[in-house]
Amino acid sequence: MSVSFTHDVPPQRVVFAPGAVAQIGEEAERLKLSRALVVATPGSGGRLGKTVVELLGVRAAALHAQAVIHVPKSVAEAGLAAARAANADGLVAVGGGSAIGLAKIIARDTALPIIAVPTTYSGSEATTIFGITDGARKTTGRDVKVLPRTVIYDPDLTLGLPPAVSAASGMNAMAHCVESFWADGRTPMSLALASEAMRRFANHLPAVVADGADRDARGECLIAAWLSGTVLSVSNGLQHKLAHVLGGLGLPHAEAHAIILPHVTRFNLQAAPDAKTRLAEAFGSADPADALASFLKKFPIPQRLRDIGFDAGKVDFVAGEIAAQAIKSPRPVSAADVRELLNEAY
Ligand SMILES: NC(=O)c1ccc[n+]([C@@H]2O[C@H](COP(=O)([O-])OP(=O)(O)OC[C@H]3O[C@@H](n4cnc5c(N)ncnc54)[C@H](O)[C@@H]3O)[C@@H](O)[C@H]2O)c1
After folding, report:
1. Which protein residue's CA is at the shortest distance from atom 4 of ligand 1?
2. Are residues 271 and 136 in the same domain?
3. Nearest residue CA, atom 19 of ligand 1?
4. pLDDT tens-digit profile of 227-251?
């Protein structure tokens, strides 16, 4: 047998239950937090933030509901300043990858512990990966300091997540799984978790998008989101590199992932028979790329790169950026391949 792998996953406490957010005070106490800065996005995210501040009571120092997707540098600096002004001894991120992403950058620079309360499916809470955007370029890195120490999954908090966000962040999570099936760093554990996550998403994501109040389906998708997040650390091939470059151009992250996923899958599956078998099992379909395309078609989210503001004049730039990275993929990727893929997705 010629299999070889390295399994290196830092520990993380995970609490999952309907209504689990009520335990936030106890979880903060476990980490000895007495002055937590609650980080959220504005709007509906801010309302979630207020709820968490109330539940934390005296353990909350302040609410900072100013997180923005892809963590622009100025937003990161404002977050750091808020943590220092509040003399925070920990961070509680409530919301999706944007809120968690800001908490991660603050933690990278301060080593403050994070409790994450994720309410989308994108999976950032389970990774050591952080990202920050300066102008048109997004930089990512890995640091164990940014991995939330504790994650509280409360499906009840997701009942009001709009269908489009459920669909896009769910497809983002499916992208983590799909790419982990063929990634170089895959392990028996990542393969098992990704298969299980795909099965749950395939069976329950359409139900959640059709009826956000379907509690059982919400719970299944949140479990799938957790599992997807745990395999994201191995998924750094064409799908994620492309989404990263597109994100740097200002395109919405989850939507960009969703749009390119069927195309990247079709491109790679020809050379990845094991991934194809796993995906075929999850979808109950012999053509998983087609199954992903019909998921996308069913969902109330942008269908093509042109719908999310991708400038066709940037095709060569993106193709050049990807080709320069010599991505490890089941199929070698040339600039011409990327151009063709982008044109199809456009
Ligand atoms: N570092 C990582 O490992 C990692 C992984 C995945 C995504 N990300 C990052 O996460 C960001 C995208 O995150 P996302 O896709 O989770 O979406 P998001 O955090 O941007 O949230 C999308 C929208 O949904 C709203 N929302 C969130 N929860 C809600 C709820 N329960 N009810 C109503 N509205 C709610 C938010 O306010 C926001 O307007 C990107 O910046 C991406 O790069 C990072």
Report:
1. 124
2. no
3. 96
4. 999 999 998 899 999 999 998 888 9
